[in-house]
Amino acid sequence: MAATVALSASVLPAQAAPSTKDPDANGQNNKNPGSTSALHSLRGPVTDENFYFVMADRFSNGSTANDDGGLGTDPMVSGFDPTKKGFYNGGDLAGLLEKIDYIQGLGTTSIWLTPSFKNKAVQPEDKSAGYHGYWVTDFTQIDPHLGTNDELKALIDVAHSRGMKVYFDIITNHTADVIGYGDHPREGYVSKDAMPYKTAEGTAFDDRDYAGTGSFPKLDPATSFPYEPVLDPGEENLKVPAWLNDPTLYHNRGDTTFVGEDSFYGDFFGLDDLFTEHPKVVDGMKDIYQTWIRDFGVDGFRIDTMKHVNNEFWQEFGPDVLSYAKEHGKDEFFMFGEVFDTTKSFTSQFTTRNNMQAVLDFPFQDAARNFASKGQDATALETFFAGDDWYTDADSNVYELPTFLGNHDMGRIGSFIAADNPGSTDAEQVARDQLAHELMYFSRGNPVVYYGDEQGFTGPGGDQDARQTLFASQVPEYLDDDLLGTDATHATDNFNTGHPLYGKISQLAGLAKEHPALRDGAHQHRCASIGPGIYAFSRTNAGDQREYVVALNNSEQPQTAEVPTYIDKRTYTRIYGEGADEVKTTAEGKLTVTVPPLSAVVYQSSGRIPQSKAAPAVVLQEPAPAQGDNGRLKVAADVDGSSFYEVTFEARTADGGWEPIGTDDTAPYQVFHDVAALDAGTPVEYRATVLDNGGHTAASESRSAAVPEPVLTLQKPVEGSSVKGSLELSATADPEKASHVVAFERSVAGGDWTAVGSDDSSPVYSVKDDVSGLADGTQLRYRASMAGIGFNVVSGVRTVTIGEAPQPDSVTIAGSLNQVMGCPAQWDPACTRAKMVLDPADKIWRLTVDLPAGKYEYKAALNGNWDVNYGADGALNGSNIVLDHPVGPVTFRYDNSTHLLSTVYTSQQPQAVSVAGSLGSELGCTGDWLPECNQAQLALDPADLVWKLTVPDLPAGMYEFKAALDRSWNVNYGANGMPNGGNIPFEHDGGAVTFRYDHFTHLLTAG
Is the CB of residue 159 less than 8 Å from the CB of residue 100? Predict the structure, then answer.
C-alpha cells in the first residue's frame, strides 16, 4: 500500500491587493507613469539540448596508427601506455565517428569533446600524460594522438548532417607546464603583497588597476615577477600561436593552493598560468577560438576553470566571441563555463555580472545526488529550485544551464550511488541511477550524459578513476570496477545499446523531444515530502499552455501525494512511469498521484490552462540587499492569483530610463539585480509588470532602494586561534572593486586600536603583523576598515591568543547520537563513551565510532559540561552541527586551536600515501623522490584515520620530502599542507622516526 506522506506544498503568493483601477492590456492606467514592458521569460537558443560529454582518448580506438602520436614507443616520450590510467589509452576522433550511431541513439543532440588540442605528451614532474587535453602547447592543431584537423572537420560535418552539434572544451586560464623558475620547475606561491608586480622600469603596480582597460605596463621577465620565468633549451618556441612563448604574459607566482588570491594567479599543478588581465592575452585568446568557429564550424564552447580567471576577461571575451559567432552564421552558438562551486549566489555571477551565457550546474549535481543517491529530504529540492532566480537577468536565466550528475573530475553518478548505498543490490543501484537521470531530464536545464554512465560505469573516485575506456581496457584498476546493470567488465567493449541505463536515457530523451515543455517549459515547484518521498513540479510552455506534472519518489516505498496544479476538475493523462492511466483534479486543483519506489511519473493535462480574463494585481516588495551577494538587490513581487503568470522587472537610476532586468515565470516572482558597478548609496527605482496567460498586463507602483555599502570580512586570523611569530591578516570585500583600500588595526589586551598596515592589491587584502614580542596568553583583537564614495565600513572583530592554547580536561561529542553511542541519554556532555582522545603528536582530539545511518546533530562540549561548548564553524555556543551519516564508522576530530569539530570517513581517504623525498634511498627505495616505492608508503590507522610510517633507524641528516598520494605526483602536498607546496625540511639526529599524514589538513609531519 502506498504511503500518503506529509508534504511541503507550494504556496503561490496572493498577498497583492486588488488594483483600484482595472488596468488595460498595456497597463496604461497603472499609477506608475510611463510605458511598461510585459515580456515572456527568456528562452535562449540553447535550452533543449541533450549533451554527450566524451573524452576522445577513452571512447573508441578507430585507428591504431595514431596511438603514440608519432612520437615512438617509449611511453615517457609518447605518453601512450594502454595499461596505465594516467596515459593515452588509444581512443581518437576516428573512433568517435565510427560510433556516432551509438552516440545519437541516446537521443544526443550535442557532442561535447574534452580539450582536443595538441598537448605536451608527458610532463615528467607529473609522471603522466596529456591524454585529458588540459596541457595544451598548440591551440591551432588537434592532438596527433586523437587525429588531425581534417578528421575533426569530418566529424563536425557528419554531426551537422545528422542534426547534431559539436562543442569544444576550451582553456583560457593556462597552458602546458613549460615555464620553470630558476633551477626549479615548480615553486610555492608568492603573494602580490609580499612581492608586487613591477614594470620594466621597476615601479610596483597592481595589475587589477589595468584589467579591462585595454592598456598594461611593459614588463621585464628578469625584474617584473617574484620568480624569473625560465624556458628549457628547445622549448623557447614550443607553444602556438607564437605570442604564447612570451614569458611576461604569465603570472609567474608559483603553484596555487586554490583559495584566495592565488586561486586567480597561481599555477595549477605547475601549469603556466596566463596573465588574463593583460590585453594581449585577452585578444590572443579571442583570436584562437574565433578561428575554430570560422574554419571548423564549432557550435559552442565549454570553458575550463572559469572561476580562476578575472571578471574583466569574461566581460570582454564572452560578448566578443558570441558576436563573432553570430556574424559567421552561428545564431545558436553557446558557451558555458566550469565554476566548481555549489553556491548559486556565486555561480550565477558569471552569467549576470560577467556577461557569460551559462555555467555548468554544479549546484544541481549536488542536489541530484542528495535526492536520488543519498535519499535525503525531498524538501531540499524545493529549496534548491527556489534559488534558480539568482540566474535571471535581461539576457540569460537558469533554463540555459547544462545539468549533470558526475564528470571526469569529481567522479561518476554510478560511483556515488555505490558509495552512498553500501550493501545495496544492483537492482536498487540501477533504480537510483535511473531516478537521478529522470530528475535531470524532467527538470529545467540541458542534461549532460558523461560517457560510460549509460553503461553503468562506476570507479572508486574522480579524475583518473572516472576515465575508463568504452573499448576493452588493459588498465588493472579499471578491470576491478563493478559495473551497474550488467555482468560485463572493462575487459570487453561496452557499447551495449541493450543496457538498462542506455535504454532509460534514450527513452527520457525521446519523451522530452515529443513533449518539449519537459525540456524548456516553466519549472514550477508544487510539493515536497518532509523526509524521503515525493518531490513534484510542473512544466508549462508559455505558448501551448499545457501543464505537465512530474512527481519523483526517492523513498523505498510507494508514496501518494496531492499535487497542486493550475487547473481544477481536469483530466490528466499519464505519459511516463507506472500508475493510474488518468487522474482528475479536484475542485481545488489537486492531482492525487501514487509513485512507485525510486521512480517517477509524468501526467499531462488534457487541455490548456484556462485563460485569465484580467491581469492580476502585482505589488513590489521592498527591495533589499541579497543574502549571499552584497553586490545585488533582491527585487520580488507578489501577484494576486494562482495561474500561469510571467513577471518582468525593470530598474532605472536618476539619470536613466527604465531597463528590463529579468522576467520570472515561476512563483515566487523575483530577480537579484546586480548593482555592484554602482556607487554605494546610489538610489535605484524598480517596477514590475505581470503578463497573464490571456495577454493582459498590469504594472506595479515603483519602489526605490539604495545600493548597499560593501561588506568587509576578515578571513584571517581564525577566530579563537593561537598565534605566534609573524601573523597574516587578510580581508575580502563584497562586492570587490580594484579601487578599494583596506586598513588593518589591532587591540592588545583590550587596549586602544592601533594601525597595523593597509593594502590596495585586490582581490584579497592582506598585511603581516609581528607578534613575537608579546607574552604568551596575551589576547589580541583585529579588525579591518575601508572607506569610499558613499561608504565607511568596518569588519567584524577576530580575537586570538598569543602562544599555545591550553587544552581542556576533556572534549565530548554531545548530541542526538549519544544513545546510539551507548550513552544513557542524548545530549550528554559527561558521557564517557562520547569522550574524545587527545593525540599528543598533533594535539587533535579524535574519536572513531560506528553509527547507524541517520541525520544527527551535536556540538563539542568541553570539560564534561555545557559551560563551554562549540558548534557549527567553531562558534562558541554556536548552532548545532548537522551530520547526514550514511552508515558505519566515522571519525570525529576536534582542534582546540580553531574549535572546529569535524568528521572524517575512510571513503574520503586516498588509496595510498607515501613520504617521497630525498630519504628514499635510506628507506630502501631504488632512488629518491619515488612516490611509488613500497618502502615509502604510510599505512592508514583505522582508529584515528591518520596515515603513519615508523622507520626504526633513519640515518642522521638533513632531508626534504612531500606527501605524494596514490603512488604518483598527480596529487601531492608540501609545506603547510599546500597542494604542490614547497618541500618539507627535516633535520634528523638519527634513530627512529614516525611520519604522520592527516588527509583532513594534508599535513605530513615527522617526529
Answer: yes
State the Cα torsion 123-126-128-132 to the nearest 10°: -80
Residue that is written with C-alpha cell 560578448 in the block: 319
Which contiguous run of DSSP H or E holds residue 992?
A: strand 991-998
Q: What is the rounded radius of gyration, in angstroms, for the C-alpha atoms of the chain?
A: 29
- φ and ψ at residue 299, rounded to 5 degrees: -95, -10
pTM of the model: 0.88
Q: Please state, in angstroms and rounded to a whole number, the distance separating the CA atoms of residues 685 and 322.
A: 31
Half-sphere exposure of 358 (CA within 13 A, CB side): 25
Q: What is the pLDDT of residues 919-960, one digit of tens each?
A: 999 999 999 999 999 999 999 999 999 999 999 999 999 999
**What sections of 251-310 are H helices per DSSP?**
262-265, 279-296
Q: How far is CA 376 from CA 303, 373, 533, 561, in A?
A: 32, 8, 9, 18
Residue 491 cell numbers, joined: 575487459
Helix (H) or strand (E) holding 334: strand 334-337
> Residue 815 — very low, low, confident or very high, per pLDDT cuts 50/70/90?
very high
Query: Which residue in 338, 377, 650, 665 is the catalytic one?
Result: 338
> Does residue 547 carry a catalytic annotation?
no
Each residue's pLDDT tens digit, 148-194? 999 999 999 999 999 999 999 999 999 999 999 987 778 889 999 88
All three cell numbers of 895, joined, read 582542534
Q: Cell numbers for 413, please give them.
A: 553518478
The rounded distance, in Å, linking the Cα atoms of 814 and 812 is: 6
Distance, first Cα to last Cα, the chain:
62
Look up 482 and say whether it is catalytic. no
Identify the three-state secondary structure at position 834: helix
Residue 855, φ and ψ in degrees, nearest 5: -105, 120
Dihedral angle of Cα 539, 540, 541, 542, to the nearest 10 degrees: -140
Alpha-carbon distance 1007 to 993, whole Å?
5
| The one catalytic residue among 255, 304, 650, 998 | 304
